[in-house]
Write a structure and sequence with these properties.
This protein has 244 residues and is of the alpha/beta class. It has six helices and eight strands, in the order βββαβααβαββαβα. β3, α1 (41-51) and β4 form a beta-alpha-beta unit. The longest helix is centred in the C-terminal third of the chain and has 19 residues, at 225-243. It is globular, with a radius of gyration of 16 Å. The mean pLDDT is 94.
Length: 244
């Protein structure tokens, strides 16, 4: 495994990132976006495991306007403080910023040695599920597939809802929803799936029974190993089919 710590130029500044490749040679690129709590050992291991399946995986700090990488991410222990920090993290990434930052990550990844030219895949978790859709809409010629796991706010009311971007997207899409997720309730799942059917692109959307919001990340209290393994298989299946 080849692992690099890098700095990505973004909007006149830089953000920290890690790039994982299985070894020498060229591999299809995948952009791995963490949940809202940022880069920490658990999702570094997730990105590394995906790279072992034959991909060059870029793991950026999406929340660099809030803070540089912290060893254990951005989540404070105090619950009241958690809510305050979440609002700050959301504030640094309004929809236009999500799209422009994401496009910069894609270009950076495609220009790295050992990354195959053409298109990349994107996987988002929680808040970054919607970022994956915004990237696919911003640079449709460079994104072959997007996977969203326990993505939140994907089909809300209002003009900035991610599902409204579907007409601009050409990528194959996969959505793995958490069961009884307050950040993506069944009514929003229904709205998303209706929009996906009207879109007529290639997609799969399913609910992981018994899985709570955030179930894919090891070490969290909501981690569900059985469903996380199934999610990983779906992720690899999607990128194998679209990037190799």
């Amino acid at each position: 495994m080849i692992e690099q710590a890098l700095e990505i130029p973004v909007a006149g500044t830089t953000t920290q990132a890690f790039l994982f490749r299985p070894g020498e040679g060229d591999y299809p690129g995948v952009l791995f976006l963490t949940d809202v709590w940022g880069i920490r050992p658990a999702n570094i291991a997730m990105a590394r495991r995906l790279a072992e399946k034959g991909f060059a995986v870029l793991l950026p700090n999406c929340f660099f306007r809030y803070a540089r990488n912290a060893p254990d991410g951005f989540q404070p222990e105090d619950e009241d403080e958690q809510n305050r920090v979440i609002q700050q993290l959301f504030a640094v990434l309004p929809p236009p910023q999500q799209a422009s930052d994401g496009a910069a990550y894609v270009d950076f990844l495609l220009n790295q040695p050992g990354v195959k030219p053409g298109k990349v895949g994107v996987v988002g978790h929680c808040f970054t599920g919607q970022i994956g859709l915004r990237i696919a809409a911003a640079v449709p010629d460079k994104v072959a597939a997007v996977a969203s796991f326990h993505g939140g706010w994907l089909a809300i009311d209002g003009p900035d809802s991610p599902h409204l971007l579907l007409p601009r997207i050409t990528a194959r899409l996969y959505f793995g929803h958490a069961d009884k997720d307050s950040l993506m309730p069944q009514a929003w799942i229904d709205r998303l799936e209706a929009a996906l059917r009207d879109w007529r692109g290639a997609f799969q959307s399913e609910v992981y029974k018994g899985a709570q919001h955030g179930w894919t990340v090891p070490g969290r209290g909501v981690y569900n190993e059985l469903q996380a393994e199934r999610a990983f298989e779906k992720e690899v299946e999607l990128f194998d089919a679209t990037l190799k």
